[in-house]
């Protein structure tokens, strides 16, 4: 919603109520009730009365100085509402080089990052908002959520099982299709739903020909961006003249 659509104008509200519910009570002061119809015309009555008396801005009458309204709004008030939304959440299982690079790059793109891995597997301090020892997550950021398993041989099955328990728009596994197929059999045998496992993207990321951990992480974030921004970008119907 645009700022213009979020605009609330008190004067317009009073005029609208005066037309549709003119006899409704607008306010009560010292025992006197004023309807919306009266409230709407009262400023005009005061202004017309002052004009009839010849009062001008800056005049002094009986100890009263009639000042000119210097505000460009002339007494109206505009209220603008700017929504503050939570950052999207990226949950990473594992402390592999890809996982560490993914956490660092995701923070630069404005994600709230949670990294979960056994402390023994973490060789360096992850660049994440929340670091969890192990794969058991208790609290997660309440926002749009994306989950990536990048254990790469260290607790793959346990991490995938924990990832499947998280409600998210995107689940991905950093590994080959063959490896994911082998893990799928174990997960199904352990009671995981086959339909949920089949929604896990493996291998994770867009096919950009990535080789290094940093490039693989970038390809995963590119794929997440596609999901995150789906339907948000307006298409331009105008055809290119080139």
Label this structure with key terms.
two-stranded antiparallel sheet; five-stranded parallel sheet; 2 domains; 8 helices; alpha/beta; 242 residues; Rossmann fold
Number of helices, counting only DSSP H or I runs of 4 residues or more: 8
Could you spell the SSE succession in H and E letters?
Answer: HEHEEHEEEEHEEEHEHHH
Spatial order of the strands in the main sheet? 9-8-7-10-11
Strand content: 15-25%
Just give the CATH class of the largest domain: Alpha Beta
Rg, Cα atoms, Å: 31 Å
Q: Provide the number of structural domains.
A: 2
- Supply the CATH architecture of the largest domain: 3-Layer(aba) Sandwich
Residues in helix, %: 25-40%
Question: Could you tell me the number of beta strands?
Answer: 11
**Structural class by secondary-structure content:** alpha/beta
- Return the average pLDDT rounded to an integer: 82
The low-pLDDT segments are: 1-9
CATH superfamily heading of the largest domain = NAD(P)-binding Rossmann-like Domain
Bulk shape: elongated
Distance between the termini: 33 Å
CATH topological fold name of the largest domain = Rossmann fold
Structure described in brief:
It contains 8 helices and 11 strands. By secondary structure, the protein is α/β, with parallel strands linked by helices.
Q: How do the helices and strands line up, and which of them pair or pack?
A:
Elements: H1 3-6, E1 8-9, H2 10-20, E2 25-29, E3 32-35, H3 36-52, E4 60-61, E5 64-65, E6 78-79, E7 89-93, H4 97-108, E8 112-117, E9 130-133, E10 145-149, H5 156-164, E11 170-173, H6 177-189, H7 194-198, H8 213-228
Parallel strand pairs: 7-8, 7-10, 8-9, 10-11
Antiparallel strand pairs: 1-6, 2-3, 4-5
Helix pairs in contact: 2-3, 4-8
């Amino acid at each position: 919603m645009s700022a213009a659509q979020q605009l609330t104008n008190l004067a317009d509200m009073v005029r609208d109520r005066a037309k549709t519910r003119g006899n409704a009570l607008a306010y009560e002061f010292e025992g006197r009730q004023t309807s919306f119809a009266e409230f709407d015309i009262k400023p005009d009555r005061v202004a017309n009365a002052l004009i009839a008396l010849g009062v001008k801005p800056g005049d002094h009458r009986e100890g009263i100085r009639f000042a000119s309204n210097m505000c460009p709004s002339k007494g109206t008030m505009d209220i603008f509402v700017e929504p503050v939304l939570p950052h999207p959440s990226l949950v990473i299982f594992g402390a592999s080089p890809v996982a560490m690079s993914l956490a660092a790059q995701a923070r630069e793109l404005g994600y709230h990052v949670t990294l979960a891995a056994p402390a023994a597997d973490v060789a360096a301090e992850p660049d994440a908002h929340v670091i969890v020892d192990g794969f058991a997550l208790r609290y997660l950021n309440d926002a749009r959520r994306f989950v990536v398993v990048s254990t790469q041989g260290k607790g793959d099955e346990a991490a995938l099982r924990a990832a499947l328990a998280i409600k998210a728009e995107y689940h991905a596994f950093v590994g080959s299709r063959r490896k994911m197929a082998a893990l799928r059999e174990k997960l199904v045998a352990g009671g995981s739903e086959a339909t949920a496992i089949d929604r896990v993207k493996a291998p994770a990321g867009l096919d950009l020909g990535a080789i290094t951990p940093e490039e693989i992480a970038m390809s995963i974030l590119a794929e997440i961006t596609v999901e995150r921004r789906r339907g948000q970008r307006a298409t331009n119907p105008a055809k290119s003249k080139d």
